[in-house]
Amino acid sequence: IGNPAEVYSFGIMFLMFGFTWLITMIATSLIYIPLFYRLNIISTYEYLNRRFGQLVRYQVVCCFLIYMFLYLGIVTYAPSLALSQVTGINLWISIVTTACVCTLYTALGGIKAVVWTDVFQLCVMLIGLLTVLIQGSIHIGGFEKIWNIAENGGRLNFLDFDPDPRRRHTFWTILVGGTFGWTATYSCNQAQVQRYLACKSEKEAKKAVFLNWIGMVIILATACLCGLVMYAIYGLCDPIKANRISNTNQLMPLMVVEILNETPGVAGLFVASAYSGTLSSISSGISAMAAIVVEDFIKPLWKPWEQLSNRKKTLVTKLLAMVFGFATIGLAGVASLLKGNIIQASLSVAGIIQGPILGVFTLAALFPKSNGKGAFAGLCVGLSLSMWVGIAAQIYPPSAKFTGLLETSISGCPLSNVTTSTPVNVTSLLTSVASPNEERPSIAEDFYSLSYLYYSPLACLSTVFVGLTISFFTGGNEKVDPLLISPIVPTIHKVIFRIKRSLPKRERTNESQIPCPVFKENSASCGKTTQF
Predict the structure, then answer these.
(1) DSSP single-letter state for residue 405
(2) Is residue 516 over pLDDT 60?
(3) Residues 379/356, Cβ–Cβ less than 8 Å
């Protein structure tokens, strides 16, 4: 739902995320998978406890739980909206049904159910998007025509090398900001880490993340092409400007209902596709939160836990999964109030909260001298900074020159399709809502207009910088278990040492041949001297 709407509004630049995902998979395979497999842990936050202590562990755990609640609310809302628009079911009934179904199979089946349903849901998602793409192309008159319409409408903006960090999407914004954001997801997000830790071996886990990259790129490319189909259909009769829908998240369901519903089964496949993507995210999130509460709170803090039978432990975990699943219902209702694209909303929340968490994991894995005091202070500073920018950006949204919102028209709309009601401001998260006479502080045009993709690198790098600085002034960490440092660190040290050894050495000149300008009475102190 979000990707096609993104392409419709801002162009196909979003496709560049495929390259950032590849960099993410490489970093994950080199740094984090070897580290976590050597430790044989269930929760990634057990690692932080061994590296920095309980204070940092619970600090990060609380941040992660807050993020997951917000994220699950957003992703529960997306398919519920699709089901509501396609079938006419009330939105709240759709939200409750979505949350209940996903919670039930996650609680009953555990991580095994999550993994296997993810595989099935990927296939359904791809089939649904391909069906919409093919039927839409037939409706327009061929993909060549769609491509020409998109090119004339400025949607084929693949490469934009503007280095301005305030521009919403450019090559550098997606490459740098996207890499940090997705590395945070794959390196320290329990919902993702638990998937590759479920593999039989480290080698299988690395293979899995690269196969995952291939699947993600295929889904992304198909969704972006669906966005071009959407523009070819609605480019000259924008449903938002015509006041037929209230925000961009409703574009894809509207297209399916209006244009493709004449073909039996297409609407159902679309709803199934939307649900597949969401159920995959919700199930892994619920399972991750249940595992974290058990491993990071109940097990270390409640001593009788070890005396419980495996059956009772499993029951407690399932009950926790159900509680978290039902909690997403209320948060999905809050997400329904969003007027901006759900893709930007989810990535913004991820950058604000997961960016500092990535900074802590980077300190732990790559900097042996960092200590718990530095990690704690770094996370506080990084989270405060990212929240400051993120919240301020909602109060003073970036101006239109930075968002890159592309033009649409209603010139091709029949008069009967255009209403005269007051239009809804669907770009409230993207463009300035301030009146022309309202003064905006200068910082709003510079710092607060920072692209939402840069929230993650800003938070991560500030966390690392403060963490290293505080660690240096508090004595660092002299005794670190080598198992707690990523294997790539000693490898890098060996490579640097070999490079130094391979460099040609300067021949030392014999000291006896060095002129020694001395006074006559001190001439005995040199072997052979030149007296002046």
Answers:
(1) P
(2) no
(3) yes
With a cut of 70, say whether residue 493 has pLDDT above it: yes
135 vs 130: CA distance, rounded Å: 8
Residue 133: in which H helix or E strand, if any?
A: helix 91-140
Amino acid at 193: V
Residue 320's nearest CA partner among 103, 146, 469, 140 is 103
Scanning 235-336, the segments in alpha helix (DSSP H) are: 251-255, 266-292, 299-301, 310-335
Angle (nearest 5°) at CA 188 between 183 and 190: 125
User: For residue 427, what is the enclosing H or E element?
Assistant: none
108's tokens: 């009953």
Contact 278, 79 (CB under 8 A): yes
Q: What would the pLDDT profile of 460-489 be if each residue is shown by its tens digit?
A: 999 999 999 999 999 988 788 889 999 999
Q: What is the sign of the dihedral through the CA atoms of 217, 218, 223 and 228?
A: positive
- Cα Rg for the chain, rounded, in angstroms? 28
Q: Which DSSP letter does residue 355 get?
A: H
Spatial separation of the C-alpha atoms in residues 346 and 89, rounded to whole Å = 25
Please name which of 230, 237, 217 lies closest in space to residue 270, comparing C-alpha atoms: 230
Average per-residue pLDDT for the chain: 82
SS (H, E, C) 3-34: HHHHHHHHCHHHHHHHHHHHHHHHHHHHHHHH
How far apart, in whole angstroms, are the C-alpha atoms of residue 352 and residue 77?
21
Question: Roughly how many angstroms between the first and final C-alpha of the chain, as a whole number?
Answer: 87
425 has pLDDT over 50: no
Residues ≥6 apart with Cβ < 8 Å to 376: 52, 55, 56, 59
* 103-106 contacts at long range (C-beta below 8 A, 24 or more positions apart): 103/282, 103/286, 103/321, 103/322, 103/324, 103/325, 103/326, 103/328, 104/325, 105/283, 106/282, 106/283, 106/286, 106/287, 106/321, 106/325
Q: Which amino acid is at 195?
A: R
Distance CA 361, CA 198 (A): 20
Find, among 484, 390, 452, the residue nearest to 180 by Cα.
Answer: 452
- Positive or negative CA dihedral for 386, 392, 397, 401? negative
How many angstroms separate the CA atoms of 227 and 174, rounded?
19
pLDDT in tens, 66-110: 998 888 888 888 777 767 776 778 888 888 887 787 777 677 665
Q: Which residue has the tokens 């609380």?
A: 62
Q: What is the largest CA-CA distance in the chain?
A: 111
What's this model's pTM, rounded to 2 decimal places? Answer: 0.83
DSSP line for 439-459: ---HHHHHTTTS-GGGHHHHH
